[in-house]
Amino acid sequence: MNVLVFVETSEGKPRKTSLEAVAYAHLMGGAVTAIVLGGADANALQSIGKYGATKVLHADDPKLNEPVIQVYAEVLTKAMQDENADILVMAGSSLGTPVAAKISIKIGASFASNVVELPNTTAGFNVKRSIYTGKAFALVEMKKNKKVIAIKKNAAELKEVGTDVQVVNYPVSLKASDFNTKIISTEKATGDILLPEAEIVVSGGRGMKGPEHWGILENLAKALHAATGCSKPVSDMGWRPHHEHVGQTGVKVAPQLYIAIGISGAIQHLAGVNSSKCIVVINKDPDAPFFKAADYGIVGDAFEVLPKLTAAVLAAK
Ligand SMILES: Cc1cc2nc3c(=O)[nH]c(=O)nc-3n(C[C@H](O)[C@H](O)[C@H](O)COP(=O)(O)OP(=O)(O)OC[C@H]3O[C@@H](n4cnc5c(N)ncnc54)[C@H](O)[C@@H]3O)c2cc1C
Question: Which atom of ligand 1 lies nearest, measured to the CA of 282?
């Protein structure tokens, strides 16, 4: 079984969720080839071998620096053919999932997104998918010979199993007419840690009372090396940038630890956080719905609790 893994990059380095896709493919067994599209850091690409890829293809064409779904789907479809790959694996993302769907249609493959576990191949090829924004699971049989799998964050543990590998140039020939859309500008999310990939998220809601109070929340995030998030009204009011909005209509996070401060716990917010390993809620209202979804809860005023919590984290370090 040959498995191709599409590895997305951020500032030239493989994304953590894509490395999880490599680890996932390795655990499936078979030969794992990774492919990176667009400019990337050569040393960082070699290190993809540590997570189980035996070969890394690099399509280093500047035209691929801006991800256009149709073009990425063309290149990856060709790479699947060239590598004689039966299965394509990638991290589910705003880029990966539509690319995966498009490739599946092109090659008539079985497609599964939001996959949370390794396939069960004892009878057929069955995968477990997270559905209804994480509230339920579906077991799906992938019947076609060719399969395209988009995994959810944390579907495979990121463990070093190999060593650096050689990166092989993968030439592509692209014409201007291949591009049906053009990216005019890109607005980068601020912050050191990308919210969808963060291991710890510290998130604030309307209970924080205003943007001028975010410093105490950011202090805790800094102490924990966490990304910051917020509820929808907070970003709607312009207290925080839109890319921090967590929930059904925002970013879906799956960190090890999600700390919700002054957020009531509306169903639309929970839809974006219910894959978190551990949820801590800080709210002054003991009846706030979020406490029902919490592993740990602190009933108290955020303005009193946050400085104490940050001091305790720093002291523990
Ligand atoms: C179609 C649709 C989609 C939506 N999508 C999303 C989404 O993706 N994400 C999202 O977040 N929302 C979404 N919403 C909005 C959602 O329904 C809620 O209105 C929203 O999540 C509430 O935000 P909040 O908890 O920050 O504010 P509030 O509901 O006002 O809650 C504030 C909380 O802060 C607590 N509090 C107040 N003062 C303090 C203090 N000093 N210390 C500690 N706690 C305090 C209060 O007890 C309260 O629980 C959506 C709504 C709709 C209709």
Answer: 43
